[in-house]
Amino acid sequence: MEDHPERCRRTALRRGGDPVIPRTVANRFANRMGVDLHIAQQEVVLLYALDALAARGIVDRLIFKGGTYVRMMVTGDAGRLSEDLDFTNNGLPEDPQSLLDAAFEAPHFGVQFRVVEPYRTTARNWACGVEYGHEWDRGRFRFEISYRERAFLPPGRWKPLDQLYFPALPFSVPEIPSLRLEEAIAEKLRAIQQRATERDLYDAARYGQKGFDQDLVRLLAVGKLWNDRQAFDPEAILRTLSQGRKEWPDLERLIGRARRQNWNRLTAETAQRFAFLRDLTRFEQDLVLDARKHQLRSKLDETLLPFDRERRPPR
Question: For a 10 Å CB count at each end of the chain, is N or C smaller?
Fold first, then answer.
């Protein structure tokens, strides 16, 4: 298949089907990122899935977050590739499978999707596998919607950062309702306190290189752990970042060996960047103490009101 998107579209239509991104374009993208072709094409497929959901209005009832959000909306070429789609619910029913089945029923520009093995996680999230196939590859990714909490801040609505393969897409890149940068960072800090995977540490390091409102990040991080009835522990988060990990095998698979760095040094530097987490305000201290009793919801909502207005892109 030829590279030019119009020629790709005409060729596919002559064959009686819809166009899929040319393999040659995906190869160039994989080479730029230094990863296996299958991993690179899966990120492209994730954008096809997002566009299919946008075409049905489903993304308007979700808030994009997680590793693919970090890569597509925040870090661009500097970030790791991801293999799944994560959202916070913003209006979908408790069981969204019928909506997803309808959105994925027909091939979307040459990519066929199918929801498989839906389940509920221990954190009240709804998740499933999504199998996909197109003319030169097939695979599966995880799809998860969090129902355990509402977003603290209204989402922004942005297009993903430009990528090498965008000119070859047979559709216009959609705007996607997304977590505000500070709330995404706060969720990552909560994840570091609770589980600290290598992806969590790497994403925090990339976030640390961005400009953001430190006071808002700290307030939201305290609030996120308060939502889980856990006391925010800045020392535990900073210690985990400072110590790093003995091995980073999953990260090297998703970012490519050519871009290998001293990840432990990077996360140690990130710990210094996030030292402001120790500077708790009086209200944040009260929120930490209230983690079990949960009596400060209205005060927390009131404190966050001034931050509802600004929705700049997480660039």
Answer: C
- Enumerate the domain spans of the chain: 5-178, 181-307
- List, in sequence order, every residue forming a beta bridge with 143; answer none if it has no partner: 85, 128
Q: What is the mean pLDDT of residues 134-158?
A: 95
Give mean pLDDT, residues 289-299.
Answer: 97
Asked if residue 173 lies in contact with residue 73, where contact means CB atoms within 8 angstroms, the answer is: no
> How deeply is 65 buried, as exposed, middle or buried, from its count of CB atoms within 10 A (0-12, 13-18, 19+)?
buried
Distance CA 311, CA 14 (A): 44
**Six-digit token string for 9:** 């579209």
CA distance 29 to 38: 11
Q: Which residue has the tokens 């994840």?
A: 191
How many angstroms separate the Cα of 161 from the Cα of each of 70, 78, 176, 261? 10, 11, 11, 23
Short-list 301, 181, 285, 163, CA closest to 234: 285
